[in-house]
């Protein structure tokens, strides 16, 4: 059974080409955290960051011995969001480098050597924190919000606004409109905000368009997609906006 988010949102499980991705969580410039997919090899990993392997049935969080507390905390928050989006059908397994990371199922998924005609020609190894690179050299992900509307008669999915990097990557709440659906990518989750006055077609197609966005723009396939209704926004969504309130939304 496939549990990847694109299949959950679109229902097209028979067309799934899901492979086990591994992600790096790194604290980048201005303390912003970054989620990035890397090659599933030992030399993609380092002791200074946190890595998440998603096999759909299991979600492994591997904490490098020199990773920061904020990276570890964000990894657990992200993992919890993924598991919740899959109705708890994925199991969380936390591994700490040098302590309890002797997990055969995990390491069997990570490529440790290169073979040519059955012969080992190269061995890969985990890098040190220094070899993993400075956190300050990694740029933060810029949040993006898209609008899904059928006001012209056809469904259109267009970029609405981006996070303001001078204001801690905040997104403008002024773009929200009760008559449409808005899809916000905050780097760790896809939020699908449904306005009170949206059409039936917009409501029916919003998750499909969100999944298509993930695929088209090569976003991490494990990103959880959460649909929320106007007026019922959770704190995790609101924190992406500056001075957000329900009264700020434009009523069509």
Secondary-structure topology with pairs:
Layout: H1 5-10, E1 22-27, E2 33-38, E3 50-54, E4 58-63, H2 69-85, E5 91-96, H3 104-107, E6 113-116, E7 119-123, E8 144-149, E9 156-162, E10 181-185, E11 190-194, H4 200-216, E12 225-229, H5 235-238
Parallel strand pairs: 4-5, 11-12
Antiparallel strand pairs: 1-2, 1-3, 3-4, 6-7, 8-9, 8-10, 10-11
What does this structure look like?
Helices cover 19% and strands 26% of the residues. It is of the alpha+beta class and 252 residues long. It folds into 2 domains: 5-137, 3-Layer(aba) Sandwich (Severin), CATH 3.40.20.10; 144-248, Severin (3-Layer(aba) Sandwich), CATH 3.40.20.10. Strands 2-1-3-4-5 form a 5-stranded mixed beta sheet, covered by helices on one side. A 5-stranded mixed beta sheet has the order 9-8-10-11-12, with helices on one face. Strands 6-7 form a two-stranded antiparallel sheet. A hairpin with a 3-residue loop joins strand 3 and strand 4 (58-63). The radius of gyration is 20 Å and the shape is elongated. The N and C termini lie far apart (42 Å). Mean pLDDT is 86; it is low at 12-17.
